[in-house]
Amino acid sequence: MSEQRFAGRVAVVTGAGSGIGQAVARQLAMEGATVVGCDVDAEGLAATAELVEEGGQPGTMIVADITVQADVDRIVAALPDRRVDLLANVAGVMDHFVPVTELDDATWDRVLAVNLTGPMRLCRAMLPLMAGQGRGAIVNVASIGGLTGAVAGSAYVSSKHGLVGLTRSIANLYAEDGVRANAVCPGGVQTNIGRSSAPKVPWAYERLERSFGRVTRTATPAEVSTLVCWLGSDEAVNVNGAVVASDGGWTS
């Protein structure tokens, strides 16, 4: 394994202000990438900027909301020489474990916007650049909620199943352009996504909680970032359209 797998490469990382996104940005910088990171959390991005700088590579951090097209356009405009080699869609929110019968439109719209529409917009913007280069990789951080309905509420599960479908569609349609797309499906990870995970409907959470008995451990963000970065590297050149669980055996 090369310790400089991303030397001379440009990588875009969403959700870079904390958790998995911050770990991915840090690792990419350490492996030689020029990182363009974005998040709605300005304070978190400032911390990430320091980590990226410690990695020895230049980086650009942009306070941006991926649910807003104008902000996506600003991210594209920040790309050095309009080049992008890796897009890591990491930003995501939970849905408070709300079942469909209790689901309000605002929660549905917000969760789908962050977890599915935002990544679609980033993919839509980056794919022509990757195709023009004849190479590129997209890694979408989904969830085991994209593999099963037993771990979250209806909006979250729907959004992550949709993200898995988007990944497979891109993998199929753009392989001939030299672009690969894969999805990572973490289980429990030590991140601040807990802000949107406090249960709001007791009976639904009690039913979902039955599946939690299979949880063997909670991963660190760095343990997930290693998989994201590997899938985005040339070492995974023959991996396209894969949906890889990183859940300690939860869904086994």
TrEMBL record:
Protein known as: SDR family NAD(P)-dependent oxidoreductase
Signal peptide as annotated in the record: none
Family statement: Belongs to the short-chain dehydrogenases/reductases (SDR) family.
EC top class, as a word: oxidoreductase
Catalytic activity, EC: 1.1.1.-
Keyword annotations from UniProtKB, A to Z: Oxidoreductase
Listed InterPro entries: NAD(P)-bd_dom_sf (IPR036291), Sc_DH/Rdtase_CS (IPR020904), SDR_fam (IPR002347)
Domain of life: Bacteria
Any one Gene Ontology molecular-function term assigned to this protein's record: oxidoreductase activity
